[in-house]
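User
Take a look at the entry that follows and flag anything odd:
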Amino acid sequence: MKKIFLAAVIAALVFTGCGNETEGNGSQAEEAPQVTVTKAAEDKNAGSQGGDDKNAEDKNVEIDVKALADDIKGGLSFDDELDEGMDVVFMRQYELEESDFVKQSSYFSTNATTEEIVAVECETEDAAKKVETAMKKRIDERKEVFADYAPDEVARLDKAVIKVIGRYAVLCVSAEPDKAEEIIDKYK
């Protein structure tokens, strides 16, 4: 019994070390987005003859919200410094309760700009839609606040990217909405 356990531990260590190859410059190779599709989605895709039911696929996607938010932050240029938002800050900014989400990853500007990144995992699709509504409300409120003293920021808010992918809601306010959308779409 001890030999089997030891063999399993050694095998686990060997296989976990295989994914950390580095490029020629010694830095770690860029990892692909961490997306997993459930068995139901694989079965559906295997049985389809070119019929693409995007909504059904969205329901089965699993997204690492931290990785998504980090990819957006790293893939776009921002005018302001973005600081990571704790759950308490996120809930206050979006007027949500802890029961409204499973996890979130967010980055907020220093309020000199309206730049912001928020990726939220919810328990259900309905909860994700509730978060989407909160995101839209925040954008509208910020438009009112910035209209008088920084009208350029209102234009940025007008181009905010808000997407719901199954149980996930994502927001990005930046000067590069098309790039933000491309990054988010990689997680579908």
In short: The first strand starts at residue 35 and ends at 37. DSSP finds eight helices and seven strands in the chain. The helical segments are 2-17, 39-47, 54-59, 65-75, 87-94, 125-149, 151-158, 177-185.
